[in-house]
Amino acid sequence: MAGQSRKWMILVATIWIQAFTGTNFDFSAYSSDLKSVMGISQVQLNYLAVASDFGKAFGWSSGLALMYMPLWTVMFVSAFMGMVGYGIQWLVIRSVISLPYVVVFLLCLLAGCSICWFNTVCFVLCNRNFTSNRALAISLTVSFNGVSAALYALAANSINPSSDSLYLFLNAVVPLLTSCTALIPILRQAPLDPLPPDALHHDNVIFLILNFLAIITGLYLLFLSSSATTQMSASVVFACAIFLLILPLFIPGVVYARNWFKKTIHSSFRLEHSGFILVHDDHLELHKQLSMREDSTTPLLNGNGSTPWAKKEVCCGSVVLKDQLFMLGEEHPASRLIRRLDFWLYYVAYFCGGTIGLVYSNNLGQIAQSLGQSSQTTTLITLYSSFSFFGRLLSAAPDYVRAKFYFARTGWLAIALIPTPIAFFLLAGLSSAALHIGTALIGLSSGFIFAAAVSITSELFGPNSVGVNHNILITNIPLGSFLYGLLAAVVYDANMGSSNGIAMTMESMVCYGKDCYFITFVWWGCTSLVGLALSILLFLRTRPAYDRFERDRIATQLD
What we know:
Largest sheet: 2 strands, antiparallel
Shape: globular
Oligomer: single chain
Helix content: over 70%
Number of helices: 27
Structural class: mainly alpha
Number of strands: 2
Order of helices and strands: HHHHHHHHHHHHHHHHHHHHHHHHHHEEH
Distance between the termini: 32 Å
């Protein structure tokens, strides 16, 4: 029983780690100061943002480290990488030391790599402790990564509201302090006892409560963090936010309330068998067995490698039929993965959707500055962060509504991409209202994609290969950060000193006016439309496999 109770403490520790290690979201808060101190152009500043994102391309190194080091050691290595990467940048921005541009580039790379290592630690903790509810655990914990910017903004305002460089100091110190706090439950992790028959239902109810608390936390940060204009009010709001992060520790109280929740909520949601999980691992294995048995008795494939039932989709053309996935959960090693059309559709849809949203957040500081709204930078960062948090929480929607409304997770991905092009075309209008609405929509969309990606990769290309395959997928992030950021930087620099009402301060190389980002927003909007179209195509190609899985699951339950 000790293992079952302590796993919830580990889940809360994982929430804390995620909440305070999304340090890449506040880059916009100090990027203008860093640009000014180093005397660099917008293109050079973009390369520093790319370096931070490029650290994610080294995510495989964290898995390699886990082969030779215990989990807690990997966590502290992550914290020390971040402390060095951000701490030395803080010394640079404070003019304590002066470093060449290439050294600052490497520091950004190291800081970005630390984030990826922390994510690996969290994924491993969820996998080890919630084998039956892995998707719910991951979606919940990853969601809190989206509130990092709001928490850091409150922390900075409660210490010194006038210092943007303070963000770098907090980025260096807070993850280390969080790691020290999370160390105790991780070290005290007990072997998990076998789950009693009703334990899975009980866990699902607890996850429902935790998601409810998460929504309250997100709404609290969204509406109150921006109103904390003084140092005292920011301190009070920040203290209450910390209380909301500690609140999930009171799991024993949830246990005593189980009977009441079972009477009032259990009847509204079907918790039988796999509960809220859209694609359960046990059902996935059974689905594979049934599919292989059917494959051996029925000529399912025609000469072109497409399934007979897929021929009904003739209106979609041969591109929908070619080399379709036959079943979910089939393992794809890297060599096979890169030959799959479905993977490249997924890769480019992510590249044109979630990644472009991340690049937008990196440029928020300069966007606000160019429109004369530098004072709104923290508000915009908080807005993006909060809606990214809600997007991540919404990524669990397919699991919660499965009993009443079954829909392929790739279809949810396509729906999540719809707000992005709308937001960018709104932003092209460059009004204050459009800036806030567009930022919220992009945060919501990209947050959903970031959180849902792990589950989609696991379902389409195999749960055992998800570590390697997901790291291959997210190589699109540094690539997109470079290309999209370069486009924005070139347009920005090209419009400095032009005659269209745009001024330039030579000391800090700042562009002012609507033309600084207008072309960029139009291009980003068109690019995100391409991502939306490809995500719809991916849904059409994978829907038969999801439908087949659901039929097999229902058939086994009836038997």
